Amino acid sequence: MQCYLGADDLFGPQVQGCRSNFDFTLLFEQSIFQIAPCALLLVSIPARAAYLRKQNVKTIRTSVATAKQTAIILLACTQLALLVVWAATPSQRTRASIPAATLSFLASSALLFLSSIEHSRSVRPSAVINIYMLCSLLLDIPQARTLWLRPGPRSLPGIFTAGVAAKTISLLLEARSKRRSLSQPYRLLAPEALVSLYDQVVLWWLIPLFKSGFRGVISIETLYPVDSALSSDDVDRRSQQVWDTRVAKGKTSLLWALLQQYRWSIIVLMLPRYALSAFRMSQPLLIHRITSLLAERTDNHSIDQGRALIGATALIYCGIALCTAAYKRLLHRFTTQLRATLLTSLYRKTLQLPADALSDDAVLTLVNTDIQRITTSMAMVDNLFAAPAEVAVAVFLLQRQIGVSCIAPIALSVLISGISFATSTVAIPYQKKWLAAVSERVSFTAAVLGFPKGFKMLGLTEHLSSVIQALRVKELDDYASFRKFSVWRNVFGGLPELFSGPVALMMYTLISGSSTLTQTRAFTALSLINLLASPVEQLIHVVPQIQTAVASVQRIEAFLLRERATNILNHENDWSSADDSIVGHDDAAHNGNAIELSVLAKHPSTHVDAVHIALVNVTIRLGEMQRSVLHKIDLELRTASLTVVLGPVGSGKSTLLRTIIGELPIHSGRRSIARSGEDFAYCAQAPWLPNGSVKDLIVSCSQLDEVFLDAVIDACALNTDVKSFPQGVNTIIGTKGLSLSGGQRQRLALARALFARKPCVVVDDPLSGLDATTSRHVFDKLFGRHGLCKLHGMTIILASHSPTVASQADYIVALDSDGQIAEQGSFAELQHTQGYVSRLVAGSKDVEGSQTVEDVKVDFSRPAAGAGAQASDLQRDLARRTGDTAVYGYYARSIGWYYSIVLIVTVLLYAVPFIFASVWVSWWAADTTGSGPIALPLWAWLVIYFTFPTVASVSVGYHIWVFLVDVVPRSSGKLHQQLLNAVMNAPYSMFVETDTGVILNRFSNDMTLIELDLVGAVLQTISGVVFAIGSSILIVLGSKYAAAMMPLLIAAVYVLQKVYLRTSRQMRFMDLEALAPLMTHVQETVAGVATIRAYGWARNFHTKCKTLLDSSQRAFYLMLCIQRWLGLVLDLLTAAVATTVVALAMELRDSASSASIGISLLQILSFNFYLTGLINAWTNLETSLGAVARIKNFEATTKSEHLPEESGEPDQQWPEKGQLTISNLSARYSPSGEDVIRDLALSIPAGSKVGICGRSGSGKSSLLLTILRLLDTPTGSITLDGVDLATTPRQTVRSRIAALPQESILIPGTIRANLDPLGSATDTELGSALAKAGILESISIAGGFDSSMSALALSHGQMQLFAVARTLLRPSKLLVLDEMTSSVDAATEAKVMDIIHEGFKGSTIIAVAHRLQTIVGYDIIIVMDAGRIVEFGKPSELLKREGGNFRKMWERSGH
Question: Do 869 and 791 touch, CB atoms closer than 8 A?
Answer without folding.
Answer: no
